[in-house]
């Protein structure tokens, strides 16, 4: 079944240019993309959507809650496990990685460190952000665009920068 879905998805990709101006073609591509990811991911919650051009390594270790949206050109390295909670939004060009190399290894390329990443329910990850291994982002947190998250983010916090630092608590300030 998995091979069949991958083959169909590949064929649909080749035919897409013929259907680009057609809403029927767009709906077919969306349906096949949904079936493709639903079959490959560890969990795929109802109402979730993955836009085109998303790359997910080790998809069987990636779990999406319900109504998760992942925009174009997101790259997820799932080897260490990635869990994204309900209603989370991941903007375009975000990188989420749950694996890295051991800094104490004699040869870096031969080493692997796997550390799970958790993105809480209702969180918003801004465009171009990078989430590093072992990070836990609390529920309803906001990560600013182009931020590099190297440590945990408290629930309802807003973080930004390189490295990402708390700039306010969601619900405080001039909102």
Distance, first to last CA: 49 Å
Mind describing the biggest β-sheet?
7 strands, mixed
Helicity level, as a percent range? 10-25%
CATH architecture verdict of the largest domain: 3 Solenoid
Question: Could you tell me the mean pLDDT?
Answer: 89
Low-confidence stretches: none
Number of separate structural domains: 2
CATH class membership of the largest domain: Mainly Beta
Number of helices: 2
Helix and strand pattern? HHEEEEEEEEEEEEEEEEEEE
The strand count comes to 19
The helix/strand class is: alpha/beta
- 3D shape: globular
CATH topology name of the largest domain, in short, is UDP N-Acetylglucosamine Acyltransferase, domain 1
């Amino acid at each position: 079944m998995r091979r069949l879905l991958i083959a169909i998805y590949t064929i649909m990709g080749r035919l897409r240019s013929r259907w680009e101006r057609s809403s029927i073609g767009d709906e077919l591509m969306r349906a096949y993309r949904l079936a493709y990811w639903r079959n490959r991911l560890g969990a795929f919650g109802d109402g979730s959507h993955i836009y085109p051009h998303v790359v997910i390594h080790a998809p069987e270790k990636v779990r999406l809650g319900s109504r998760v949206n992942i925009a174009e050109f997101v790259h997820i390295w799932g080897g260490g496990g990635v869990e994204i909670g309900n209603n989370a939004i991941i903007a375009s060009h975000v990188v989420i990685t749950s694996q890295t190399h051991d800094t104490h290894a004699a040869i870096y390329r031969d080493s692997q460190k796997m550390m799970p990443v958790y993105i809480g329910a209702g969180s918003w990850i801004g465009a171009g952000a990078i989430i590093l291994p072992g990070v836990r982002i609390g529920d309803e947190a906001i990560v600013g665009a182009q931020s590099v998250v190297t440590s945990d983010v408290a629930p309802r916090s807003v973080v930004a920068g390189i490295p990402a630092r708390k700039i306010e608590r969601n619900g405080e300030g001039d909102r």
